[in-house]
Design brief:
With 198 residues, the protein is mainly α. The chain contains six helices and no strands.
Length: 198
């Protein structure tokens, strides 16, 4: 069976991902997210000291910890801004690479292959469908990596502060996907019952 002119878009996307890994653009975005998580841990540490001193549980001046909290907040906002800029750049690179792959496939296919293909379908694939993939490369892929890296950063910071609390937090964290799975199963069962009653 002859493959359509847009069938190379997945290969173009895979090639773009490999290229992004080689250039380090996607890894830099994940690194910015991990750094923001680490700064957030420092922000929580400063806030804990401020609250401890406000409640009379610790001595010393409050202003250094309050200043550290503000500094972490500013740094975290800067990392978030930098991540948004990098995500926009990665999304633009992905769209350009995918669109180029689609157009090259169309040109290689020639007029005979396009005779039974609607011109509007090719245009939709090259424009609208590629635009919809922006979130996949710029948002979802880095977020999937950060979902594994960020908890490790938090556990490392917690191990430095209180090693005994690490198993408690790790156990509680492992229960989160279990709860999400149970909620998803319940929602699916409710949806099936709703459709069965219609």
């Amino acid at each position: 069976m002859r493959r359509g002119p847009g069938s190379g878009s997945h290969g173009a996307g895979r090639a773009w991902l490999d290229g992004a890994r080689r250039t380090g653009s996607a890894r830099a975005l994940v690194g910015l997210g991990a750094a923001a998580t680490g700064v957030g841990c420092g922000q929580a540490w400063c806030l804990a000291h401020v609250l401890a001193q406000a409640l009379g549980r610790a001595g010393g001046a409050v202003w250094p910890w309050a200043l550290g909290f503000l500094a972490c907040a500013v740094l975290r906002a800067g990392l978030g801004f930098k991540s948004e800029l990098r995500a926009a750049t990665i999304g633009a690179q992905a769209r350009h690479s995918l669109r180029t792959g689609v157009l090259q496939r169309v040109l290689r296919a020639g007029p005979d292959a396009l005779r039974h293909v609607a011109a509007g379908g090719v245009a939709t694939l090259a424009v609208d469908t590629v635009e919809q993939l922006d979130g996949l490369y710029a948002r979802w892929s880095p977020a999937a990596a950060l979902a594994l890296i960020s908890p490790a950063v938090v556990l490392a910071a917690l191990a430095w502060a209180d090693l005994g609390a690490v198993p408690i937090l790790a156990g509680a964290g492992l229960l989160v996907p279990v709860g999400m799975a149970l909620a998803g199963l319940g929602a699916a069962a409710a949806s099936r019952q709703q459709f069965a009653a219609m």
